[in-house]
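Quick one: structure tokens for this chain, please?
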Amino acid sequence: MPTDRRAPGRDPRVRTAKTKEAKEAKEAKAKEAKEVKEAAKEAKAKEAKEAKEVKEAAKEAKEAKPRKRERRMGDRRESPRLPIKVWVKTATAEGFAAVEGDISVGGLHFTDKLPITGKKIDLRFKLPGHDAEVHVKGEVVQVSQKSNLYGAHVRFGEMDMDTERAIARFIDERSS
């Protein structure tokens, strides 16, 4: 009687199926690794193309007509400043505080003993020669410190055309 070398109860087809599954898994892993490499290669090529475009744009900007030099370094104002008394209310303050400042068409600068807190502030001032008090909301764009005083650079928010014209007229009349 012939003897079977295989262990009793083991089916050779099971081993073949497991080997086939392992081979398929290995092939799937290899395919996935290849796709990842291709995606990385495409991303690198895209990044290189974008970097080239940025360099070209920078070169074009450099060769473009130079911008008009500002009057003073760091000073981008297009209108002069004139002194004015301003009442300021910050988001954390309970009431308005009177401070001295300089007004221009787009905003104003004022100094105070305490640092300015918050980004949005309410402003009130009276233009000399005008009866009505001006109420404007502003945005603090920069805070500076000089010795023991803090300066706030404020950009005016939206305001009605009459107020905007009144400020422009006031500055134009006084600076000419």
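The chain has two domains: 11-66, 82-175.
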